[in-house]
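Design request, tokens follow.
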């Protein structure tokens, strides 16, 4: 309902503006009493209308081997042969209720698409061990959700894809490279560098934002490189542990997402992660892919990632790369960098960039992924 001249008119405003006889008649004593009285529940119902496209919510359980993933399917009521998106998780947003995923459930069903969001393995209503899971395992969880949707008669099996932000962006590329049933992918703020390069970039920017000295940055860099060298098999574990021991007492250590103990490289999940090059997986992707970055992202080396993508672009005519003006790592335009980089705010990311929303919606519509088949 449109409100006059920027806001609601109260009773005094209505009396002041009722200059015409017709307006005066409209403001009879009984009418003023009605304006003054609070609405009863039945009266409140009078200004509620049914949305044009109601959204259904259905809880689902997705099996992937011994793992059971609890999730929720959002889809427009009455929809048939719909395109669908499976959301893959950012590292700090394991639960389906995270603000990070809310825009998907608000935008995509309105465009005529279904969205499935689940709790990451080992979180919420999903079992399994996240600590023991590789990137392949996490991508396969998303693929299992795609397979579940393919069996739903309301979903078009030829129009199911994946979306992910940050680590979820990595996983969306990996899922698209591992399954012929993933028909498109959206990778948001996904670094096209290895995890060790990305974390050094992020840690350096974090210490700068929080005002630490170059000496602190140098010590952090030395500790990270000592651990990474050991994980690659070119360094010594004892030397890496000494570097971590020296760093873990520093006030900035909590910002680095580093463990205090250097694990045996043979069983280390970190070793597996830094051996994964997203560019290698992306070169195997044959389906349409939308890659988006924020122009003011202190977490991901956007310029390097875009440059690496440009090198393979001639071989990937269905890939589109977009850098969103004013947006940060979470596609936000208003979160201060100190909050974005503070672990205490790790689950506060909620995209709000209008350009991001527009690019996402336009790309999906252009690919005929929205609306009925």
């Amino acid at each position: 309902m449109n409100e006059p001249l920027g806001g609601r008119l109260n009773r005094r405003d209505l009396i002041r503006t009722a200059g015409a006889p017709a307006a005066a008649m409209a403001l009879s004593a009984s009418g003023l009493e009605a304006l003054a009285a609070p609405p009863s529940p039945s009266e409140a119902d009078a200004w509620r209308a049914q949305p044009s496209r109601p959204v259904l919510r259905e809880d689902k359980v997705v099996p992937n081997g011994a793992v059971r993933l609890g999730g929720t399917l959002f889809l427009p009521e009455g929809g048939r042969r719909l395109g669908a998106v499976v959301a893959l998780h950012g590292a700090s947003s394991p639960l389906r209720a995270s603000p990070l995923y809310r825009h998907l459930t608000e935008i995509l069903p309105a465009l005529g698409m279904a969205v499935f969001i689940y709790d990451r393995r080992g979180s919420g209503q999903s079992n399994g061990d996240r600590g023991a899971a590789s990137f392949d395992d996490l991508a396969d969880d998303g693929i299992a959700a795609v397979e579940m949707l393919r069996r739903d008669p309301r979903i078009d099996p030829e129009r199911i894809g994946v979306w992910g932000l940050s680590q979820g962006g990595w996983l969306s590329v990996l899922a698209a490279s591992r399954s012929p049933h993933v028909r498109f992918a959206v990778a948001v703020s996904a670094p096209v560098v290895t995890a060790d390069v990305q974390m050094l970039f992020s840690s350096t920017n974090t210490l700068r934002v929080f005002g630490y000295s170059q000496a602190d940055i140098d010590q952090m860099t030395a500790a990270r490189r000592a651990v990474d060298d050991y994980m690659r098999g070119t360094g010594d574990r004892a030397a890496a542990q000494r570097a971590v021991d020296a760093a873990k007492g520093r006030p900035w250590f909590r910002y680095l997402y580093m463990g205090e103990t250097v694990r045996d490289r043979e069983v280390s999940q970190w070793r597996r992660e830094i051996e994964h090059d997203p560019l290698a997986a992306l070169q195997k992707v044959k389906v349409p892919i939308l890659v988006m970055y924020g122009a003011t992202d202190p977490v991901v080396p956007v310029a390097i990632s875009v440059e690496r993508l440009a090198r393979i672009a001639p071989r990937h005519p269905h890939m589109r790369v977009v850098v969103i003006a004013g947006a940060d790592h979470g596609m936000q335009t208003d979160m201060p960098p100190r909050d974005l980089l503070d672990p205490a705010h790790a689950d506060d990311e909620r995209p709000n960039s209008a350009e991001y929303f527009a690019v996402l919606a336009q790309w999906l519509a252009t690919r005929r992924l929205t609306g009925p088949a």
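Comment from the thread starter after seeing the answer: thanks! The chain has three domains: 4-47, 56-194+276-366, 195-273.
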